[in-house]
Specification:
Layout: E1 4-10, H1 16-25, E2 30-34, H2 40-45, H3 47-64, H4 80-104, E3 108-111, E4 113-118, E5 121-125, E6 130-139, E7 143-145, E8 158-159, H5 161-164, E9 173-177, H6 181-192, E10 196-200, H7 212-224, E11 228-230, E12 233-240, E13 244-250, E14 253-259, E15 261-264, E16 268-270, E17 302-304, H8 315-329, E18 343-345, E19 350-355, H9 358-363, E20 368-374, H10 379-384, E21 390-396, E22 402-409, H11 412-424, H12 429-433, H13 444-453
Parallel strand pairs: 1-2, 1-6, 2-3, 6-17, 8-15, 9-10, 9-15, 10-11
Antiparallel strand pairs: 4-5, 5-6, 7-16, 12-13, 13-14, 18-19, 19-22, 20-21, 21-22
Helix pairs in contact: 1-8, 3-4, 3-6
Bound molecules: flavin-adenine dinucleotide.
Flavin-adenine dinucleotide binds at residues 10-16, 33-36, 40-42, 45-47, 50, 113-114, 140-143, 161, 182, 271, 275, 306-307, 313-316, 318.
Length: 461
């Protein structure tokens, strides 16, 4: 029968499409149902479009500072429409690449909204309506931006990360509610394009969860670049009369910021409503679907992966979960391990972390030894004119085990992979220290920080 599958995946994001491809590679007959566009949030409204905007804004900055490197450029300007068009063309190419790979591996893409009728039946409405019979299900429906109940937030001047990516004109002044990863990345884009940016954050520091030395250093860097930052501040309302005003309170004092647009970046909500969970007896917790380490829900044969599980809301985690869930569906027992998950923040300089922060390691009772190295003492960073930042390697003093690494440096997001592998292989800091790193590269800061753990750092000023 045409509509009968071994596995049906609901949602074609980095969790769902990766699970579908792997399950097909393992010999299963697979369908993946996608309501909007293959690639999900990550490709269409998240990781890729934001990094394209960031890259364009960095190129603009580099061109403007060309003279520092001996390059004479004329009057440097940017064309916002072309920046958006460049982003759209990258997204389009990658999307067709994903569709090609899914089909090449023999899985079927069904365009529509999936609704679970029972654990073996899915009703699809929308473009390709049909009833699917399936042995197993993977729920990979992802998440969407949250909107808090703040008066005035329904104004057309208030955007979320989805709608901001479709802007036609660049705002001259942007107020961002939320100093988490998404808010700070958008602040970096518009600040690099020379626009006024104000961030309003409820907590007493931006980027909660990031090592405090790293977050306080990036805060100083953002302030130096002209970004206005209000911490410990609560937004009360958005007023849109003649002008758009964000009304907020800092230490009980009411303040107002006028702007062209407001971006709400206060977190994301799981897409677990309206997909028929009640028909199979699945009750989400605060909207998130509970899974065991095989990614199976409390209903045998029904799995969930990615943002909708709320484990770690990152694309590479969704994909890793997709691979494990697909293997389990195919009868190959595999378990998910979250002990080595890198986290990247695309500020300028970039932030990349893996493992425990120094504070977390101490709290967990470890006897901690930390190695540090400043980016300002690294030759390649000096050549690049990007000397802000530092690296911290957090180790267990007794065993030399690497407990965590926290980098604020150019190319940090590429360099963190070395420390992920080191932690995965249970390398000691001595082994990092004895590994010859290429010169001149920014990656030398990793070796230098490892030397610093041993108290024998050659280049530390
Ligand atoms: P999603 O990518 O959300 O995909 C779910 C898909 O399911 C969607 O396409 C949706 O249309 C579809 N769907 C939902 N319900 C149904 C239904 N009933 N039927 C059919 N289809 C359905 N992560 C990183 O790792 N690195 C980054 O740099 C990064 N940057 C980000 C920047 C922004 C602005 C945002 C918003 C997120 C970013 N993320 C980043 C997070 C990342 O995008 C998500 O963690 C990731 O996309 C989650 O993947 P997923 O497969 O679980 O869900």
């Amino acid at each position: 029968m045409g509509n009968k599958y071994d596995l049906t995946v609901i949602g074609g994001g980095p969790g769902g499409y990766v699970a579908a491809i792997r399950a097909a590679q393992l010999g299963l007959k697979v369908a993946v149902i996608e309501d909007k566009q293959m690639g999900g949030t990550c490709l269409n409204r998240g990781c890729i479009p934001t990094k394209s905007l960031l890259h364009s804004s960095e190129v603009y900055q580099t061109a403007k500072t060309g003279l520092d490197f001996g390059i004479v450029v004329g009057d440097v300007q940017f064309d916002f429409g072309k920046i958006i068009a460049k982003k759209d063309s990258v997204v389009k190419r990658l999307r067709s690449g994903i569709e090609f790979l899914v089909k090449k591996n023999g899985a079927t893409i069904i365009n529509g909204l999936g609704y679970i009728k029972d654990k073996n039946t899915i009703e699809v409405t929308g473009k390709e309506p049909q009833t699917i019979t399936t042995d197993k299900i993977i729920i990979a429906t992802g998440s969407r931006p949250s909107r808090p109940p703040i008066p005035g937030l329904d104004s057309e001047k208030v955007l979320d990360s989805d709608s901001l990516l479709d802007l036609k004109n660049c705002p001259d002044k942007l107020v961002i509610i939320g100093g988490g990863v998404i808010g700070i990345e958008f602040a970096t884009v518009f600040n690099s394009l020379g626009k006024d940016v104000t961030i309003i954050e409820m907590m007493d520091e931006i980027l909660p969860g990031v090592d405090s030395e790293i977050s306080s250093t990036i805060r100083k860097s953002l302030l130096k670049k002209g970004i206005i930052l209000y911490t410990s501040s609560t937004v009360l309302s958005i007023e849109t009369k003649k002008e758009t005003e964000c009304v907020f309170k800092t230490n009980n004092v009411e303040q107002r910021e006028t702007c062209d647009l407001v971006l709400v970046a206060i977190g994301r909500k799981p897409n677990s409503e309206g997909i028929g969970l009640e028909n199979i007896g699945l009750v989400p917790e605060k909207g998130f679907i509970n899974v065991n380490d095989k990614l199976e829900t409390s209903v045998p044969g029904v799995y969930a992966i990615g943002d909708v599980t709320g484990k770690v809301m990152l694309a590479h985690v969704a994909s890793a979960q997709g691979l494990i869930a697909a293997a389990n569906v195919a009868g190959i027992a595999q378990r998910m391990n979250y002990s080595v998950v890198p986290g990247c923040i695309y500020t300028s300089p970039e932030i990349a972390t893996v493992g425990m922060t120094e504070a977390e390691a101490i709290k967990q009772g470890n006897k901690v030894k930390v190695g540090r190295f400043p980016v300002s003492a690294n030759g390649k960073s000096m050549i690049m004119g990007e000397t802000e930042g530092l690296i911290k390697i957090v180790t267990d003093e007794t065993t030399g085990e690497i407990l965590g690494t926290h980098i604020l440096a150019p190319r940090a997001t590429d360099m963190i992979a070395e420390m992920c592998l080191a932690m995965k292989l249970e390398s000691t800091v001595e082994e990092i220290s004895n590994t010859i790193h290429p010169h001149p590269t920014v990656s030398e800061i990793i070796m230098e920080a490892a030397h610093d753990v041993e108290g024998l750092c050659v280049h530390k000023p």
